[in-house]
């Protein structure tokens, strides 16, 4: 038989709601639990709470109490009996959790969580980059805040040649007219090949900043920078009436890329009969390589500073020559052409270079002959490919804002973009020379100083190859526009009478001037004197055929330097 279940008796409270008072003795209250606190209430009162789940214990500003819990009612008047017991209750481990020591910024965080530790080296690099960016911004705003002060052009850029009192300025051409010119030439004709070439060493294509190679010095090899009229081959071709205009690839590339130039340069033009010769002066800046020419960051003005424009140009020319010989296989195996090097003496050790004398047709009665250079040769798929070798040099990462040793492997495009911004004219001239020589590949080397303050020792960090036509398209160099500039200058010089002239790029304005100079100008016994500005001759105000009228002005800079600067 199943036992019955007795339901406890519910006491009756005649005085109100709820159970009767605990002190009232009644036989009906014997089965109630003892020592259970109860909050007395009336019908108008709110019921008490068993547990408070609405309390917020995540507020860091609220003082922590170990006795805080959802069942804690010590501060509630409804539970006077349990207040003393709860006040004596303590957790076993009452110490607060340790606070992270990662800097003062963590104490302001609202949420209690451990921060993620960042790499200290990355943080240091970011701080350095921020400082460098702030410095450049400060210089930029300083120049903007003082527009009437001396600008960088007036402080650094100086004329490449002293303008003499007896010189007569015949014309001036603003660079804005060059951008609209276009001329298409046919494929050139090779008239003569001279010199010998060594093979390119392919192992340099695998050089990285982690496997850098020390730049060697080639003091025994001779490099020649011969001007047009001193070239015996060009003299012979002129006597044979092979062309009307004669020049070198260095001079032609300077004219072709003139709109990108910032520094002053000069080219000597000689009109002899119906022939035109473009020459360079002895010690001309065309023999050197500009560095940071198109950058917005000013270089030191002191000429003796290792980071001045002149010192960097000499250093870049030295690097370029040595680099062009180091990346070759120097085992005596050479590709010799029909004629030897026209400038070398017998038994003299010369650098690996081949001179390619080429002829272009400018119109029905005018041909142009230029001496072009290639520095190396390579056999690709059993076909001979000619290479030009040039080197970009890093002197101080603070000026460019890009450290080659860190960026060349991972961000080579960013490094090249920075060089295109800071050395637009130099890279365009190298590309133009490769196009003139019809080189199959142009190799660009990245050469850096071992230490930013050591301008004698360098290392090769990387070598990258480009096809000249593709690279020209990448840097927005239009061959038709290049030949249009050359054709316009040739036509302008052909209208002049016989004599000697000099083409001078203005040091402070984007324009080129043509001066008529004495026949003995730039000779060893020719003494130059500074020219007062008020004695400058004004060019004739006339409109050339097919060109816009050039603006006439006679404000020639009074900043002068010696010829070899």
From TrEMBL:
Residues 85-133, 526-565 are annotated as: Disordered. One of its GO terms (biological process) is cap-dependent translational initiation. Keywords: Cytoplasm, Initiation factor, Protein biosynthesis, RNA-binding. One of its GO terms (cellular component) is eukaryotic 48S preinitiation complex. The keyword Cytoplasm applies. The RNA gate region regulates mRNA cap recognition to prevent promiscuous mRNA-binding before assembly of eif3d into the full eukaryotic translation initiation factor 3 (eIF-3) complex. This is Eukaryotic translation initiation factor 3 subunit D. The lineage of its organism: Eukaryota, Viridiplantae, Streptophyta, Embryophyta, Tracheophyta.
């Amino acid at each position: 038989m199943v036992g019955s279940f007795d339901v406890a008796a519910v006491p009756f409270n005649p005085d109100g709601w709820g159970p009767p008072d605990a002190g009232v003795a009644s036989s009906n209250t014997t089965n109630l639990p003892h020592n259970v606190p109860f909050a007395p209430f009336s019908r108008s009162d709110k019921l008490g709470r068993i547990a408070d789940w609405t309390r917020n214990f995540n507020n860091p500003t609220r003082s922590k109490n170990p006795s805080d819990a959802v069942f804690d009612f010590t501060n509630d008047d409804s539970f006077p009996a349990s207040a003393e017991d709860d006040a004596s209750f303590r957790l076993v481990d009452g110490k607060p959790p340790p606070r992270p020591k990662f800097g003062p910024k963590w104490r302001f965080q609202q949420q209690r969580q451990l921060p993620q530790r960042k790499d200290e080296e990355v943080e240091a690099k970011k701080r350095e980059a921020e400082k460098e960016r702030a410095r450049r911004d400060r210089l930029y705003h300083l120049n903007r805040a003082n527009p009437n002060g001396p600008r960088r052009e007036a402080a650094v850029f100086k004329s490449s040649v002293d303008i003499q009192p007896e010189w007569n300025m015949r014309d001036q051409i603003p660079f804005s007219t060059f951008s609209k010119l276009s001329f298409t030439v046919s494929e050139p004709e090779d008239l003569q090949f001279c010199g010998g070439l060594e093979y390119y060493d392919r192992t340099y294509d695998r050089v990285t900043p982690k496997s850098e190679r020390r730049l060697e010095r080639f003091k025994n090899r001779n490099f020649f920078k011969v001007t047009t009229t001193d070239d015996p081959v060009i003299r012979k071709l002129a006597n044979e009436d092979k062309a009307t205009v004669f020049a070198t690839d260095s001079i032609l590339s300077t004219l072709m890329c003139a709109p990108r130039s910032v520094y002053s340069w000069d080219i000597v033009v000689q009109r002899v009969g119906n022939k035109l010769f473009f020459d360079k002066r002895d010690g001309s800046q065309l023999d050197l390589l500009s560095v940071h020419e198109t950058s917005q960051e000013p270089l030191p003005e002191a000429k003796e500073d290792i980071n001045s424009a002149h010192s960097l140009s000499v250093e870049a020319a030295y690097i370029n020559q040595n680099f062009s010989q180091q990346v070759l296989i120097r085992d005596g195996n050479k590709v010799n052409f029909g004629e030897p090097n026209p400038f070398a003496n017998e038994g003299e050790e010369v650098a690996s270079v081949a001179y390619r004398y080429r002829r272009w047709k400018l119109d029905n009665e005018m041909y142009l002959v230029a001496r072009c250079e290639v520095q190396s040769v390579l056999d690709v798929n059993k076909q001979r490919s000619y290479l030009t070798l040039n080197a970009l040099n890093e002197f101080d990462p603070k000026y460019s804002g890009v450290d080659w040793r860190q960026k060349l492997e991972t961000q080579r495009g960013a490094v090249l973009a920075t060089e295109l911004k800071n050395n637009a004219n130099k890279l365009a001239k190298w590309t133009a020379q490769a196009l003139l020589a019809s080189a199959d590949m142009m190799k660009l080397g990245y050469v850096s100083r071992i230490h930013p303050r050591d301008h004698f020792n360098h290392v090769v960090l990387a070598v990258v190859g480009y096809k000249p036509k593709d690279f020209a398209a990448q840097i927005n160099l239009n061959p038709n526009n290049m030949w249009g500039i050359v054709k316009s200058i040739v036509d302008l010089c052909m209208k002049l009478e016989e004599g000697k002239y000099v083409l001078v790029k203005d040091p402070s304005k984007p324009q080129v001037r043509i001066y008529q100079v004495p026949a003995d100008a730039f000779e060893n016994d020719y003494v130059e004197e500074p020219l007062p500005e008020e004695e400058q001759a004004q060019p004739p105000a006339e409109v050339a055929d097919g060109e816009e009228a050039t603006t006439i002005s006679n404000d020639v800079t009074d900043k002068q330097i010696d010829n070899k600067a």
